[in-house]
Design a protein that fits this description.
One of its GO terms (cellular component) is polyphosphate kinase complex. It is an enzyme of class 2 (transferase). Its EC number is 2.7.4.1. Keywords: ATP-binding, Kinase, Magnesium, Metal-binding, Nucleotide-binding, Phosphoprotein, Transferase. The chain has 20 helices and 27 strands. The strands form four sheets. Strands 14, 18, 19, 20, 21, 23, 24, 25, 26 and 27 form a ten-stranded mixed β-sheet that branches. Strands 10, 11, 12, 13, 15, 16, 17 and 22 form an eight-stranded mixed β-sheet that branches. Strands 2-4-3-7-8-9 form a six-stranded mixed β-sheet. Helix 13 links the parallel strand 12 and strand 13. Helix 11 packs parallel to helix 12.
């Protein structure tokens, strides 16, 4: 019997001590799709999670599959963590992606569409409408759509048109009356991105949605007069979308520059994926595959009963008539360490104690208010901060502009290479620069991912430095959806560290040693490995030990092997890794003392916490960095030590609550798969995304991670 691709390579993959980064990512997206399958979720939540899987998959193909093609196209060697070379690995990866794609569409047709119908929402083509409704659709097409469409023919006289990334495209094969069949021509009609995905018809108690491609399909003949249409094929392409050093960490710089130079000659990146509707023209598809140098495993077939591009489902989720049907997030609660929130001057409070914020359970307004007050306070002399992503209508930008107008020194490092936020960041940075702010547009080949704020204030002839260090972006929109950590402090040790770090990133300075800050690309990997090895030494000497880490991704092999060695020394290691995890837990003789869980639910887990027991003299850090090659070598990152006993307990409690979760948690298996965790017999449901809204001081103070 011939083995399937998955079977053919599985024995090689399972022999490796490491899990493939990209295969692990596919497993992560499966966990997101699983949220859309949960029986307790409303249809609108199910639509939301399905749309998220679609945008995730688009980005994955643009970045990771695009990077893989850089190796394939330029004959560069690459051995994946799975042990597979470029071609076999691509074969395996496409097999997994095809399986995931099929799962998405089966879920859509078998679950989503029937549930939408029960809610009075129908997705139909034009033929299912009444005559009056059909006329309404035709008028919409003629007035709003027809003027925007441009048929682009490809034949012996015209060059092949540039088809844009992620747009729906009709491929139309035509012949002129009386011409031979081999004289047929290909034409392409792109559907502009600024046309709504669905045309909506409201009935008394229902909503009818006509996909925009069905509106155009019905009227396509108006674009091809006096010719014979042989076939109409709806498809969508995804192109290689990123060539930065930061995302291509396994390439050497010289080779990447060579790739970038070659790509500069093209107007668009190479095509890495084709989604196409069933009933397509084989002649047209074969022509496209040959032109774009693709194999059939990069073609993803979509049934007519489904739809191409689930990101369009956001239009339904965002429909105003369903606003009350979406689950409401509870109001934020006061931080455990800041019971005075809203009643006392934050500058005064911070001179007395540190504040730990845990978003979205605690409001980001504490940070925004601090910056806005600093902008107006006549005693504030300077504001310095790093910015990675901002909200579209950002209070941060407005406050910094106001500060500059008030004559304060404002320094901002804007990371213009923040993927997919480049335009917004450049626009906001230019506004600040025009207002007189000192703006730095990133640092050479490094991405500035660290999240830091420094406010310098004159208090009674003394200078006080107010510092914020965090794991998340200064973005008030995502702060309602992402779990993140923020520390507000006037601690002189941290203030010195942060001041020193700003001097390094805004000037030409070589830092001295930081006391409570660990930074990358300088020494973060080595420092973390040193902490891990200390736990291993303690375990070998019979002393209490334990490692508890929460990150978005774990991919760096040096860190992974340090954790393996610690496990073999007897250290109990518990890891909470939302997305990619390249470490194999529970392998006999390698990692039997390591457990890995992933939390995927209502909020996107974004906080990073590192806790080392250290024989009772605990070390606890938070910050912006995951355990990835890019974080350690190609980004400006920072982790800050939390010394306040109460705040350290808060971070420990976050770890404890995550480990206790039996509602959103998935347990990673040795083979890289995941099993959903559920309450044991007699055990209550513990949903971490609800429990933090009910957290009290007593619970925090009683937390223990190592018995």
């Amino acid at each position: 019997m011939k083995l399937a691709v998955g079977d053919k390579y599985e024995s090689v993959i399972q022999k490796s001590d490491l899990v493939s980064r990209d295969l692990s990512w596919v497993k992560f997206n499966e966990r997101v799709l699983d949220q859309s399958k949960k029986a307790h979720r409303t249809i609108f939540e199910k639509l939301k999670f399905l749309a998220i899987t679609a945008s995730n998959l688009d980005e994955f193909f643009m970045i990771r599959v695009g990077s893989l093609y850089n190796y394939l196209d330029y004959d560069k060697e690459r051995v994946d963590y799975s042990g597979l070379r470029e071609e076999p690995f691509k074969e395996k990866l496409m097999k997994d992606c095809q399986r995931f794609h099929l799962d998405q569409h089966d879920h859509f047709t078998q679950v989503i569409l029937p549930e939408l119908h029960q809610e009075g929402i129908s997705l139909v083509n034009v033929s299912k409408l009444t005559a009056e409704e059909q006329e309404k659709v035709k008028q919409y097409f003629m007035k709003a759509i027809y003027p925007m469409l441009t048929p682009m023919v490809y034949d012996g006289y015209r060059t092949f048109p540039i088809l844009m990334n992620k747009l729906l495209v009709f491929g139309v094969v035509t012949t002129s009356p009386g011409e031979r069949k081999d004289m047929r021509k290909m034409s392409f009609v792109q559907i502009p991105a600024n046309i709504p995905r669905f045309f909506e018809i409201e009935r008394e108690n229902s909503l009818t949605l006509i996909p925009i491609e069905e509106v155009i399909r019905e009227n396509l003949i108006s674009l091809f007069r006096n010719v014979e249409i042989e076939s109409v094929s709806l498809f969508r392409i995804t192109r290689n979308g990123d060539f930065t050093l930061e995302e291509s960490e396994d390439m050497d710089a010289n080779f990447l520059e060579e790739v970038k130079r070659k790509l500069m000659e093209r107007k668009t990146g190479r095509v890495v994926k084709i989604e196409i509707e069933e009933g397509y023209s084989k002649w047209m598809l074969n022509s496209l595959l040959e032109r774009w140098n693709l194999r059939t495993d990069s073609v993803f077939l979509v049934k007519r009963s489904s739809m191409i591009d689930f990101t369009g489902l956001w239009q339904i989720v965002g429909n105003k008539r369903f606003r009350d049907r979406l689950p409401q997030v509870p109001d934020p609660v006061k931080p455990i360490s800041y019971s005075e929130e809203g009643r006392a001057e934050i500058f005064d409070i911070l001179k007395e104690k540190d504040i730990l914020l845990h978003h979205p359970y605690n409001n980001i307004d504490s940070i925004l208010d601090l910056i806005e007050k600093a902008a107006e306070d006549p005693d504030v002399m300077a504001i310095k901060m790093t910015i990675y992503r901002l909200a579209k209508d950002s209070r941060i930008t407005r406050a910094l502009l106001r500060a500059a107008e008030n004559g304060k020194h404002v320094s901002v490092l804007f990371e213009v290479k923040a993927r997919f936020d480049e335009e917004n960041n450049i626009r906001e940075a230019k506004r600040l620069q025009k207002a007189g702010c000192f703006v730095i547009y990133g640092i050479s080949n490094l991405k500035t991912h660290t999240k830091l704020l420094l406010i310098v204030k004159k208090d009674d002839q003394e200078i006080t430095r107010y510092v914020h260090l965090g794991s998340g972006n200064y973005n008030e929109d995502t702060a309602r959806l992402y779990t993140d950590i923020g520390l507000l402090t006037t601690n002189e040790t941290l203030a010195n560290d942060v001041s020193e770090f700003f001097n390094v990133i805004t000037g030409h300075s070589v830092p001295s040693d930081y006391q409570n800050l660990i930074t990358a690309p300088r020494d973060m990997r080595n420092q973390l490995i040193e902490f891990i090895e200390q736990e291993a030494d303690n375990a070998r000497n019979g002393l209490p030990s334990g490692i508890f880490i929460k990150v978005n991704s774990l991919e760096d092999s040096e860190i992974i092997y340090a954790l393996y060695r610690a496990s073999q020394s007897g250290v109990k290691i518990k890891l909470i890794v939302r997305g990619i995890c390249c470490l194999r837990p529970g392998r006999q003789g390698l990692s039997e003392n390591i457990e890995v869980i992933s939390i995927v639910g209502d909020f996107l887990e974004h906080s990073r916490i590192y806790h080392f027991h250290n024989n009772g003299n605990t070390r606890t850090y938070s910050g912006s960095a995951d355990m990835m090659v890019r974080s350690f070598d190609k980004r400006l990152e920072s982790l800050f030590k939390v010394e306040s006993p109460l705040l350290e307990k808060q971070l420990m409690n976050i770890l404890a609550f995550n480990l206790k979760d039996n509602f959103n948690a998935y347990v990673m298996q040795e083979d890289g798969s995941y099993l959903a965790k559920s309450p044991a017999e007699g055990e209550s449901v513990f949903n971490v995304h609800q429990e933090f809204f009910n957290l009290d001081l007593e619970t925090v103070q009683s937390v223990k991670l190592v018995e």
